[in-house]
Amino acid sequence: MPLVRAVNVLKSFSGNQVLKGIDMDVHRGEVVCLLGPSGSGKTTFLRCINQLETIDGGRIWVDGDLMGYDDRGGTLYRLNNKRIAAQRRDIGMCFQRFNLFPHKTVLENVMEAPIQVKGENKAEVEKRALDLLAKVGLADKPSAYPGQLSGGQQQRVAIARALCMQPKLMLFDEPTSALDPELVGEVLTTMRELAETGMTMIVVTHEMAFARDVADRVVFMDGGVVVEQGHPKDVINNPQHPRTQTFLRRMAAEDHTKIPDPAPMVDGTATDIL
């Protein structure tokens, strides 16, 4: 059983269909990167997993639990807010913006949810929070306030905060897009180290090098559908679909990163040039 299973997920906003039947499995310990142009549905799909958006059709399971609904004889009934909040406790999410409490210290930000939401022992949570801050390279910042930190440091606090809830799954929505270029690397390093621990991660990103090096699988979305997916070196280095090829060429030009052109086609089959 995959940790995450999505079947025919549909979502519209004001009559505009953003997700047009997404099917996706994510297995335990897998790192999946969602690639695609703005407006392709990546962030919406991520938010549907965490029930920050209500799906219009289909179903999403996380660790066997049907997210947001009870299934009674094939008919879905929406869960109340308390039960949805309980489902979210096992899913960590990091956003483009860090959403830290500006009036609380770094340590207080990391400790807040386990104490207030789960009712955990304060001393135990503090020890775990300090360990996590050390793991993300911020052992010297527990007493600092968010406004005293760089953007990269704030995002690493946000990652530690999510991990302090001891989630089964981590969702990242373009976690480096709001950062100055020189700060991107420190956040990606933290995410690489997290992946190495075996954390299941779904990452919406435009960081091609990260996707190529860290992901077990990349999924290219466009127009609310999954266009192409597979091993990162296959999809990024040798995309088969014209939409994927166009997107990756544009990303390579913007990032000044050389991504090999797809192999030439012979009788409809890709061939490698040695």
From TrEMBL:
PROSITE patterns: ABC_TRANSPORTER_1, ABC_TRANSPORTER_2. GO terms for molecular function: ATP binding; ATP hydrolysis activity; ATPase-coupled polar amino acid-transporter activity. InterPro entries: AAA+_ATPase, ABC_ATPase_HisP-typ, ABC_transporter-like_ATP-bd, ABC_transporter-like_CS, MetN_ABC_transporter-like, P-loop_NTPase. CDD domains: ABC_HisP_GlnQ. It comes from the Bacteria. Residues 4-248 form the ABC transporter domain. Its EC number is 7.4.2.1. Belongs to the ABC transporter superfamily. This is ABC-type polar-amino-acid transporter. It comes from Candidatus Phosphoribacter hodrii. The lineage of its organism: Bacteria, Bacillati, Actinomycetota, Actinomycetes, Micrococcales.
